[in-house]
């Protein structure tokens, strides 16, 4: 169990370099995405930023928020494709987190999933998550997320403890759960996991801003609360997701991919820099997996110039600087 060792009695410095995850997510939206001819190029480009981790997100779907089962669809990355891209990532010198998602069709929010029959839903969920735990074990993936932003069901501590026990029967690596930024305090099973995972989409401003000073000031009370929570739970905190679209106003609602139609490359870059300035070197902080690298060719709903990707934008230069890319 990878519990964090925190300073006692003020005898050790609050800031001290510790191993951190420098990661970027490469999500999938279709069965063949991870077999795309672009896959090797994407992995090379991710590695070139200074990243040392990549996250993959195979996704199953349930039709309605009250349904009690989830299933793979044509939008689910194939198992064979996922195995191949994990092997490719390792060949490029990247460590891997597999972070399975359960989603609703269209723009439905997975946090609103509230099954009519919870017992049946959790039985279906254990089948889903252990399927990917087996795949993670078979591919030597270094880390695994047992769930992502399932706020409608994540309060059931006993059921999640059973899920985690089932996953540990199939997979021996590091485990986390990816809680939304407004969900993590309601999670009762952090002690069963190795890392606290938070999707760090906190709003940082009430209006568009490129001011690093203002953004760092906004992060300060959040950082203090997270440090205290890490001590309380005796676990380091990983930002399992964090990201900003390159749109004006992204710092007001980082979770919104349609906040504006006006480009905001400088605001995106300022947000990247403020996050890394704030948290790098904090002993309780385990790193970040940025959302996200490029969409697959012909699959992106948002034009690349406005999307979450930092690729080819000032935000990528921030990553290269902060992560020491050669």
TrEMBL record:
Superkingdom assignment: Bacteria
One Pfam family named in its UniProt record: GH113
UniProt-listed SUPFAM superfamilies: (Trans)glycosidases (SSF51445)
InterPro entries, per the entry: GH, GH113
Gene3D superfamilies tied to this protein: Glycosidases (3.20.20.80)
Descriptive protein name: Glycosyl hydrolase
Organism: Streptomyces cupreus
